[in-house]
Design a protein that fits this description.
Layout (H helix, E strand, L loop, with lengths): L1 H4 L3 H15 L6 H12 L4 H12 L4
Length: 61
């Protein structure tokens, strides 16, 4: 994962720990990761993201 993010492994671990402190979700655990993803998709901006993504997938004339 750290190679894909172009940062040191410890930086990734520190960011995951900060996320856990702020949200209470430890995304290194599958159950928490699933709950966190559902929470992100259920947020107030979830509908806006899908509306913005739709036009870019439409064929251009």
């Amino acid at each position: 994962m750290a190679n894909q993010l172009y940062c040191h492994r410890n930086a990734v671990l520190n960011r995951l720990e900060k996320l856990r402190e702020l949200t209470g979700f430890d995304v290194r655990r599958p159950r928490d990761a699933t709950a966190f993803l559902y929470a992100l998709n259920a947020g107030p901006n979830a509908d806006q993201e899908s509306d913005q993504a739709a036009p870019s997938k439409a064929p251009r004339a």
